[in-house]
Structures are given as C-alpha cells and as structure tokens.
Amino acid sequence: MDGFVSIGTRQQTAPATGQDIRGRFAAAAAGIGAVPALSLRGEVAAIRGNAVEIRGLAGFATIGRRAALPAAGDPAGITVEILGFRDGVAQAAAFGRLEGVSPGCPARLLGTDGLRVDDAWRGRVIDPLGQPLDGRGPLPQGRFARPVRAAAPAAGTRARLGPRLDLGVRVLDAFTTCREGQRLGLFAASGVGKSSLMSMLVRDADCDVAVVALVGERGRELREFVEDDLGLAGLARSVVVCATSDATPLLRREAAYAAMAVAEHFRDQGQRVLLLMDSVTRFAMALRELGLAAGEPPATRGYPPSVFAELPALLERAGPAPGDTPEGARGSITGLFTVLVEGDDHDEPVADAVRGILDGHVVLDRRIGERGRYPAVDVLRSLSRTVPGCLAPEEHALAQRARRILSLHADMAELIRLGAYRAGTDPAVDEAVRLAPRLEAFLAQRKDERSGIALAFAGLREALDGAA
C-alpha cells in the first residue's frame, strides 16, 4: 500500500515529504473545486410595480437576504432584497428596474455580503452598492466586508461626546455649538441653501474625513455639487454616496445605510468623521414606498410603522465609537442630517420624529434667505442640546445676550417698521434697534469664508460691543 512499508507483521507509517504534502493538498483542493456549489433557487410568483413575490425560498431565506433574477445581457442579473414573508411567499424589492422579468423566472439566493470599504475611497463618488459613479475606474476593495445594516453601539459602553468641534460656519459655531460625535438636524424647505451650507461644512469643518450621502438627489445636481460646491479640496477628503431621484426606492434607502457603513469604517480607525446626509426625509419616503409595497398598513400621513422604527436604528449609529477609553481618544461620527420640511410644516411626522432623536436642530428660514442673508439660519428657533457643557461662561453670556436682542427686535419689528415706536421709550428696545443690524451682518457669511469657534465669539463680542 502506498505510504506504508512492511516490517515483519507490523506496519509503520513512512514520514511524508514536503512534496507529498503539497501533492495531497493540491488533490484535495481539486476535489473540493469539482463539487458543484450549493445553489438555492425559487421562482417569481408575482410582480407588482417594483415589488416581487418569490415562491420556494421559505425556510432558507431571511429578511434582508438578497436574490438574483435573470436579466438579458447581464450575467449578474437583477438583485432583489427580501423585505418580508406572507403565507410562505417572500416579499422582495429590486435594486434595479424589472423589465424582462416575468412570473416563473428563477430566483437564485445570494450569499450575504457588504461593502469592502477602503481608505482609498476618499475623493470618490460611489453608488449605494459600492460601484464608482465618477468615471475614474474601479474602486479599491478592502480586506473585509462591512455590513451596511448594523446595530448602534450599546449605550452603556459608548464613549461620551468629545470636545467641541469647529464647523467653520459662524452662526453654527456661536449659537448651536457642536461637539465631536454629536448629531444635529438641518431643517429646511427646498431652495433655502442646504446644499451651500453642506458644502461649507465639508470644506471647512475640523474633521479627518467627510462622508456625504445624497439620497434622492436630482441627477443634474450631482456634478454641480461635487465640482462647484465641494471643489477639489472638499472632495479630496470626502466620500460621496449618491442615489438619484430616479433610482428605485430600495437603492435610495441603501444610500443612507451605505454612507453610514463608510463612516463607521473610518470611525473604527480612530478618525473624526463628519457625516452629512441629504436628506432623511427622502430616506423615509423610500422606506414608505417599500413598506407599502410589502403590504404594511399606512399610518401617520401614509407612513407605515416600520419607518419610525428604522429612523432611530439609522441615526443612533452615528456618534462616538464604543469603548471605555478616555473622552476624545477614539474615533467618532459627527452627523448632520437634513430634513426637508414640506410646506414649512416643522411638526410633520418625519421632522417631529427626527427632532426627538437628534441632539439639536438648526432651522433654515426662507424669509431670511429672501432678505439676502445666508446661511439663512433662524437663530431663535435653533438649538444644540450640548451647548451648556461646551461653552465658557463668557461665551454662554454672549450667546444669550445676542438671542435676547434678536428676540426683542423680532417682537418689535412691526411697530418699528410702521413708525409706531418712538426712540427713547424703552432703553432695551433702543439697544435692540441699534445692535440688530450688526448681529445680522455678523450672521452672514460667504461660501468661501472660513470661521471657527474662537473667531465666531470674537466677532459676536465685537458686534455686541459696537458703538452707536
């Protein structure tokens, strides 16, 4: 027998040589490679819009698992994701268009995968599936796949917020001062300057890397935002994840999850990440389309209950990294999430839910923009819940005094405009009339002008101490 020698009535194993071992490994590898891969298949039972029902996967597939449907001219096929089950039939939605798919088409269950994020993704524009959109060739792939759907760090082990963070925008640094790992909402109607404000934050905020999620963005605005608003300097330290408004709801939803996964990659390396998402409202709209397609009942303004479960699941992933290290010693994700306020209704369901989850809110007002002051931030309606813990007493006093002056001037604006108020009647009103224009000038900032917390409070002090 091969591998044995006869010694009397006993058999003794001959020592194997290195060549023998290599040969056995090669034979084993060839044998394993010859075994056909296990492939679980079902078939399409029904199609309604972008929703697909697949029969034959119950007991094997789970919610969130993906499957491939055949597509003409595309060997990879059309990828769908399972959203739920009804009577043993999987309810799925497609990442692409379903032209050419019909009932009876095979559905092949895919393995679990994620995004292989790499440090070289800085300066790139990608889609939610990790494919390049900038025409600059394939993306380098990291060693490990990171799941796009992940749990938020446990509250008991998450590090505390870090030191205050220079955002580079005077009005935000002075009146909604932000700390590393904080989450702020930018609430505004369309056309009030959200994109310009976001570009200022990406270029000028004191962070190591910026991740920008454009969810449901107009297709023509992608290159304008990247080339004009971000510029070469802003893009060089950014990763832009985009799903345009004509993308399927599953792809628009995935843009938010993919951007969060990219931000978590850099956070886990100890870097300070600035995550900007525009907009959470379009993310919620995509969830609404998916939920209704899966058969969920509509609730508040047509949003199914799952939307209000997914919002905190996504937003809570931003913040400081988990761990028991000293404050500021680990990476963090500072999140700024825009909320599209339809009809200037700040109490609509998505805005109300997001405001309750985040650590503060910044309100952009169309009337302020119409007066020509940008960023069009309404100081009196904006706040940061971490301000008491990150301002010096003198800075806090300056901000409070400025708020009182702006509030009093707003209350008296109509009387002043009509000439019904006489100077000298009330010293506080006289002070407000004198200082309000100086504060308005302080709050205005050009897109190419950088500020910081120290400069912001120095300018605020100068505005409040101005002579008549």
From TrEMBL:
Residues 180-369 form the AAA+ ATPase domain. It is found in: Cytoplasm. Gene3D superfamilies: 3.40.50.12240. GO terms for molecular function: ATP binding; ATP hydrolysis activity; protein-exporting ATPase activity; proton-transporting ATP synthase activity, rotational mechanism. Keywords: ATP-binding, Cell projection, Cilium, Cytoplasm, Flagellum, Nucleotide-binding, Protein transport, Translocase, Transport. GO terms for cellular component: cytoplasm; type III protein secretion system complex. It catalyses: ATP + H2O + cellular proteinSide 1 = ADP + phosphate + cellular proteinSide 2. Its main location: cytoplasm. NCBIfam families: fliI_yscN. PANTHER family: ATP SYNTHASE, SPI-1 TYPE 3 SECRETION SYSTEM ATPASE. This is Flagellar protein export ATPase FliI.
